[in-house]
Amino acid sequence: xxxxxxxxxxxxxxxxxxxxxxxxxxxxxxxxxxxxxxxxxxxxxxxxxxxxxxxxxxxxxxxxxxxxxxxxxxxxxxxxxxxxxxxxxxxxxxxxxxxxxxxxxxxxxxxxxxxxxxxxxxxxxxxxxxxxxxxxxxxxxxxxxxxxxxxxxxxxxxxxxxxxxxxxxxxxxxxxxxxxxxxxxxxxx
Length: 189
What we know:
Elements: H1 2-17, H2 21-41, E1 49-51, E2 72-78, E3 84-88, E4 95-97, E5 104-106, E6 113-114, E7 118-122, E8 125-127, E9 132-133, H3 139-147, E10 151-155, E11 161-162, E12 177-179, E13 184-186
Parallel strand pairs: 1-2, 1-7, 7-10, 8-11, 10-12
Antiparallel strand pairs: 2-3, 3-6, 4-5, 8-9, 12-13
C-alpha cells in the first residue's frame, strides 16, 4: 500500500508544481474566503478553538481572509514524547523549526496546550469520501483520534481533491468537511 500512496503523492505534487506562486496565492485567497463563509454559516467564532497549521509552500494559505480577533487559534507542535499536540498561538507568534522533518512554523510548547473544537487538516490528496493521504509521517493520524469527535476540515487546492478510491489503511484518519479554492464538501452531519 505504501507504494500506492507514494504514487498518489508524486502525481499530485507534479500538478501542484505546475501552479505559479500567483496562482497559488489567488487559490489560497479563494479558499480562505470559502472557509470564512463556512465558519460564518456554522457560527464558528471566538468561542471556538481552531486547530490550524502553518502552510508549507505547496499548501493553501487558509488564513488570508480570517481576522485573528474573530478566532481563538492553536497550532501543532511536538511534546517531549514526540506526540503532536495543539498549543494556543497567533499565526504571527509561530517560530521556525524542523520538528516535523521539514522546515515549519510551530508554536512554543510552553503555550497553553488545548483540544481544538475543530481541526484544519492538511493533506497531499483527498477524495470525495473524506479519505486523505498525508505526507507520510502519520502525525495527524495519531493525533486526531486523541482529540475525540472534534470536527475535522480537510484543507487543499481543488487539484488535490479526486473522485477516486485512494489507498488507506486502518489507522488513516478521514475528514468531515473538505474546503478547496472552489468548493466546500460537507461529508457528515
